[in-house]
Amino acid sequence: MxxxxxxxxxxxxxxxxxxxxxxxxxxxxxxxVELAKRGQAAPIGSLTQMDTIRLGKRTDGxxxxxxxxxxxxxxxxxxxxxxxxxxxxxxxxxxxxxxxESGKHLEGIAEALRDVRPMPAAFDRSYVKRLDGVHTMATIxxxxxxxxxxxxxxxxxxxxxxxxxxxxxxASTEIFIEPGxxxxxxxxxxxxxxxNDPMIAPSMLYAYAAILEGVPFANGAPNLTVDxxxxxxxxxxxxVPISGKDFKTGQTLIKTVLGPMLRARMLGLSGWYSxxxxxxxxxxxxxxxxxxxxxxxxxxxxxxxxxxAEAFPDLYGDVYHKVRINYYPPRGDNKEGWDNIDLFGxxxxxxxxxxxxLCRDSILxxxxxxxxxxxxxxxxxxxxxxxxxxxxxxxxxxMVAPGLHPEHDLFVQLEKLKNTLRWMMGEDQITHLGRExxxxxxx
Length: 443
Ligand SMILES: NC(=O)c1ccc[n+]([C@@H]2O[C@H](COP(=O)([O-])OP(=O)(O)OC[C@H]3O[C@@H](n4cnc5c(N)ncnc54)[C@H](O)[C@@H]3O)[C@@H](O)[C@H]2O)c1
Known about the structure:
Layout: E1 15-20, H1 24-37, H2 47-50, H3 66-69, E2 78-84, H4 90-97, H5 102-106, H6 110-114, E3 119-120, H7 142-160, E4 164-169, H8 186-194, H9 202-212, E5 217-219, H10 229-237, E6 241-244, H11 251-264, E7 268-278, H12 281-286, H13 289-307, H14 313-316, E8 320-327, E9 336-344, E10 350-358, H15 361-381, E11 386-387, H16 410-424, H17 436-439
Parallel strand pairs: 1-2, 1-4, 2-3, 4-5, 5-6, 6-11, 7-8
Antiparallel strand pairs: 7-9, 9-10
Helix pairs in contact: 1-4, 1-15, 7-9, 8-10, 11-13
The structure holds nicotinamide-adenine-dinucleotide.
Nicotinamide-adenine-dinucleotide is lined by residues 20-26, 83-86, 97, 121-123, 128, 131, 133, 170-173, 202, 220-221, 246-247, 249-250, 280-282, 361-362, 364-365.
């Protein structure tokens, strides 16, 4: 069944972006957008700003920029707001995060950054034990937090005169929560809010408020958040796009390239050991076992789906997969991720592959955040509600419809994303069949 092409409303007026959390990722995102607006730095890593999309046959020579092909919001129309349990504005937050060089990338846009002052957060320390925020809503009553978030969204909308709003969770990873009865229906969800049930995390309140206010929600962390039946159903009812979870930036990005390579060549795998050191606040939060568990689940799921041990027990039936994150302050945001991969080939002969990725966490995450914001806004203007599976490209643990397994292969995800854009604009899907060049049938 071919779905009819959607009608896309134009990107008129300003686009408000509310980040939950104004830490390393959010401040790097905001600074990058402000620099790109002024032509002072290039938004490297962002498909919406830098990539092209092939249309038609290879011989047609049609490859416009994505931003010229689909009606995305212009960066000049993007206005930021945030919540954080620390009162630092985006300038101070960026200085503290230490990701960007102050003289080169912060001083020139200091005024714009100082203008992004976080609103008091809907924060409950039992979900992020390592943080002791003071700039909070002064209540942990869940209904009150929900109402206050909704009010904040509307105040932001009015004050900044924005036409549309997108919300991005760029806040700390919350403790692990398993989906339970409280998450199944919106009635159960509401009852749990009124009972201050611990199964309703602050991130769920932000997501719920966003959906009720018609604001697309993207989740950059591995928290369950919007990936529960009650909120998934509600997002469809309210015509709101949702996506998540957990930006796919460093080690998992590599894993979803190398994993499919092993599988594509039918090479076996006996073990994959991944370890990281990082020293930013994210690393500090993840040093708590309950918070790490949330991240671990998100990082571990990837290989299982890519390798499909059930279909290939001889190759992938006995894989030892381990993921570690170690908090190591001297490195700050500059993470080092090591992978040791024990693979085997023809007749079972063992081989090893080692990867040492000296990456920069927020430098990799910021462009993903920007694309998610612009694509979520596009999806909403195209009337695409609920889970946006085509945005799996950006996530470690992509949300999918119940009963589907997530697609993790980076290049399949990229094709899915680009084919969705082609579909939105009434262009042909690209199948890579290409028989017409050899059959003499140019039809
Ligand atoms: N940087 C990456 O490569 C990457 C990759 C995948 C996922 N993530 C996730 O993105 C998130 C942000 O990462 P970061 O490096 O910016 O972390 P960070 O610690 O620098 O920033 C997170 C901010 O969220 C705030 N916060 C915590 N709870 C909050 C709440 N309830 N409401 C509002 N604000 C709250 C914290 O005070 C902090 O300022 C983390 O969950 C991280 O795991 C990051």
